[in-house]
């Protein structure tokens, strides 16, 4: 029997081997740094590069500069990066469970569940800021409903569960339309006026990224179809529940911080798959950094437009990042369509 | 045939109920008097609000049911429906843009524009589905396109007025509220023409439901029939969406209910029952939407979704 | 779940390595197998045959714990599969199902690598130590040259061998195959059956569902014929593949002659 050398290139994507993946991650990390810098240096307030740099080296020229850079600009970019990474990882996991590259976090209905809970919290306890908590609870509840009901087709059930929550949201708004503006921003997704508190609530959830990576072997096996996966020792009930559970938590955390931003969870895993192939050991980390880059870059666009547009600003009323991702997502979708047709 | 008779009677009963119920509440006899007597205090409410609304519900429901039936049989997919194929959402984007931005487009021209949006979105989804019959794949593509569309609608609504609830509901959920004869006149010709075409096409569509090879073997022009049937389905959904917004789950559900009632899956046999079931579903949902929280009106799309989704899950269970 | 406490059926010479013990299996309200028992001896090739709907694939599914018996148990070395850990079973028993999903863009190497999952487990990554096993599985199945090709682009025969290589990489002493030759041309069917013979010589116990009765007679040590969810004949090919059984089980009128090459029974329909 001839000995086969395990060839170094095991992927068929343009990025090959461990060196390639690490190189890709390093390159993306540089892009992330560039994005952070852009977010810190661009804004409505006329701060010179020197002013910003003075804050960064710890000797701010004015106290106000420190507030602008560290309390206004920095949380926004950090939340964008974190939420983008979580959305992308959630997308990877949902796609793995459903075994369909067109699934996304919204497929599970978590966004609609979160929106409904937010409306309820605003109606029941308008004075208290329960929005983040409500969003988290609503998203997790929608995920739980899906796990309980969705035996046969998770994708179909998830979309239908999402439709029910959306209808309930509307029903609640008919009764009282006061939370309308908040809910609208929620449904689109926005990073405007994020605070240090938002970032502090978000970052512990980033632990879900390594958890998703540790699940890579299981998700790889699951991707082969249920009978094959069972033959390999994957538990057919527990595994999709665990993977979907991690996906729901990641999406819930991201949605809590940034709202139900569309397309990041669909596009980032897709681009990652084009670059490094379907193996989740590579897919999870690459998709995470791509998601971070995508959401943060889209937010930079939204932010810049807000600064330019009269009557809007980088505050709550500014252009929501979800509007940018929806507009950019549509052509990307066309691209996916063409690829799908070519296959 | 008993199904057709029962369905017809049901639709008539709903029509009577829609005219009689509400504030003021009238007995059928009193309603008849009010309808024929121009001096009756309820004359205007009945002739200009309740009756056109009921007729619109009837037409729109029948149109949606037919649209769903054609899509499901032509695509051989049990979850095909304008709401899951992005067709309704595409129509809603165009309509919302026109209305919210106050573009000078006459009401009668709106269906044409809505149709354009519906066709673009629908074509995108169909191209992405390709040959697959996997329901999950179809649903996911449709959901992605619908998400893009509703993102655009929300953006447009946000641009326009200060979160105008009525506008949002009208174009994200669908509603039959505040509609008059003008709206009926917009929808009616489209629905009538499309129904006639569907009746003519029914045998070919039934052949397509058996598979392309079989249909070709039976001498049916596969591509032409499919395109025509899809066009008719899109026209029906777009016409409804241009006037009522994207009312979900009537089109998806009506054919399933009709097939179960008739005990057949043949396009020809199910066609008439589907029209009746669709009409009855939407009229009943609108009655509930109008009365349940009176005087507050629930968008009928909420009612159809809350009823339609569990019913659909039940219909699709194996 | 009541655990069957009855003693194993009248035992053959050696204790069976895998055994269905009075299993009742069905889907929803339909019962396919009722109280069926089938012991499998180590180091043998067993072929399950029978007409469509006879329950042979259901039986294989139960043996591979893809289907859970309502009553009775499948015993692996005397221990019930239901009570063994999922990966514990997968280290002993590999399954080649009829249909499997190919992840878009996955290479043959990546798919075969999945066979190492039972050894590595849910939370750990594959290691370099697994590479030789994967390479050997590719070599045994004769697809080393396809290692870094996309599985979706391979022919039906090549793809089938990728799945078999995955099962081989699992390094189990039991291999269950569900209609492994269905999509293969004559040449690849022959290759596959020879591969099965090679594995048996290495001590692997094989149970497979086969449609082709002549194939079963030629390559199996034991042929088990099922009809309506019950075993109607069980024994050496020469004892099972007879005109009487063909008439009884498949309803065909046939003559059986010795195969000129192997001497095994070979049937010809009249």
Automatic annotation (TrEMBL), chain A:
Pfam families reported for this sequence: FecCD
Subcellular location: Cell membrane
Keyword terms of this UniProt record: Cell membrane, Membrane, Transmembrane, Transmembrane helix, Transport
Membrane topology annotation: Multi-pass membrane protein
Transmembrane stretches, start-end: 20-42, 77-98, 104-123, 130-149, 155-175, 202-223, 243-271, 283-305, 317-337
Keyword Membrane appears in the UniProt entry: yes
PANTHER family, A to Z: FE(3+) DICITRATE TRANSPORT SYSTEM PERMEASE PROTEIN FECD-RELATED, FERRIC ENTEROBACTIN TRANSPORT SYSTEM PERMEASE PROTEIN
Family to which this protein belongs: Belongs to the binding-protein-dependent transport system permease family. FecCD subfamily.
This protein's name: Iron ABC transporter permease
From TrEMBL, chain B:
Membrane-spanning intervals of the chain: 53-72, 84-104, 110-131, 138-160, 180-201, 227-250, 270-289, 296-316
Membrane-related topology note: Multi-pass membrane protein
Location of the protein in the cell: Cell membrane
Keywords annotated in UniProt: Cell membrane, Membrane, Transmembrane, Transmembrane helix, Transport
A Pfam family per the record: FecCD
Keyword Repeat: no
Similarity field: Belongs to the binding-protein-dependent transport system permease family. FecCD subfamily.
Name the UniProt record assigns to this protein: Iron chelate uptake ABC transporter family permease subunit
From TrEMBL, chain C:
Protein's name in the database: ABC transporter ATP-binding protein
CDD domains: ABC_Iron-Siderophores_B12_Hemin
Keywords: ATP-binding, Cell membrane, Ion transport, Iron, Iron transport, Membrane, Nucleotide-binding, Transport
Alphabetized InterPro entries for the sequence: AAA+_ATPase, ABC_transporter-like_ATP-bd, ABC_transporter-like_CS, P-loop_NTPase, Siderophore_ABC-ATPase
Taxonomic source organism: Nocardioides imazamoxiresistens
Keyword Thylakoid: no
Membrane topology note: Peripheral membrane protein
Keyword Phosphoprotein: no
Domain ABC transporter: 18-253
MF terms in GO: ATP binding
Pfam entry (one): ABC_tran
Cellular compartment(s): Cell membrane
SMART domains: AAA
